[in-house]
Task: inverse folding
């Protein structure tokens, strides 16, 4: 922890989603005033981080920090003691994109070995959510103790798709006096818990098949339906379906690599379920 009276500097203060809080000497163009948090020890196991600005003589001016759509009023960290997690407490206002309304929020983040500088990521997540024009009243401000605050890369797609479990079936339906219908369908299980990835998988499966149905176990996809004057049969599992599964997964990876948006995935984590 920084000693009492030192400062945490804020880089990219005006850049949406790029705010970075750090404790090393800033390597940025010198400005008349710079945004900071002043570190003040208030008791043995707690620090108060006063928001404000410092001038060229390092004189501190205390005031709320307006970072894009988020106004930071106060911040505090309680260090771990007696086996408990470290706690960061933030008092903020979150404005909508037009700045015409706002919500007050008190954020409590509980994690082991947490560093106060993580609040830069918290602010970035909230600002990205608001910039997407979603309802500020639907932000889950209690989620920050649970979610991963790092933006992902496309490698997460490969892992999510490789973990999917496909079971293929032949199926048909008898139509009296008409050609019968025949098709292949697949049950898909072990879908990712991440809501954004689930939605992306479902929407891209629709590019491969005639119909997609969400199920309690995951999803059911139905491939092209054909008609023929041939006897129908009951649903039956396709024992050798390795090629079918590989084709379906490869197409998913190609489609999802184009559509995947790490910012959208992060925003989805903040929405109230």
Result:
């Amino acid at each position: 922890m920084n000693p009492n009276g030192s400062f945490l500097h804020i880089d990219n203060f005006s850049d949406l989603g790029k705010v970075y809080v750090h404790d090393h000497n800033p390597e940025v163009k010198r400005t008349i005033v710079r945004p900071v948090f002043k570190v003040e020890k208030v008791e043995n196991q707690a620090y108060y981080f006063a928001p404000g600005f410092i001038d060229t003589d390092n004189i501190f001016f205390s005031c709320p920090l307006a970072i894009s759509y988020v106004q930071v009023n106060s911040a505090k960290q309680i260090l771990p003691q007696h086996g408990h997690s470290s706690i960061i407490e933030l008092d903020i206002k979150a404005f909508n994109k037009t700045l015409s309304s706002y919500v007050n929020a008190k954020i409590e983040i509980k994690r082991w070995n947490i560093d106060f500088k993580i609040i830069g990521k918290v602010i970035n997540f909230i600002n990205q959510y608001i910039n997407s024009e979603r309802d500020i009243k639907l932000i889950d401000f209690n989620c920050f103790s649970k979610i991963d605050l790092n933006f992902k890369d496309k490698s997460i797609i490969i892992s999510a798709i490789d973990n999917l479990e496909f079971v293929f079936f032949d199926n048909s339906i008898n139509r009296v006096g008409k050609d019968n219908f025949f098709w292949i369908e697949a049950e898909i299980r072990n879908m990712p818990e991440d809501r954004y990835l689930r939605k992306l998988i479902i929407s891209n499966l629709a590019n491969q098949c005639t119909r997609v149905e969400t199920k309690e176990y995951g999803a059911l996809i139905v491939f092209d339906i054909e008609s023929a004057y041939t006897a129908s049969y009951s649903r039956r599992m396709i024992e050798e379906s390795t090629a079918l599964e590989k084709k379906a997964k490869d197409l998913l990876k190609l489609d999802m690599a184009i559509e995947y948006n790490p910012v959208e995935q992060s925003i989805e984590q903040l929405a109230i379920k």
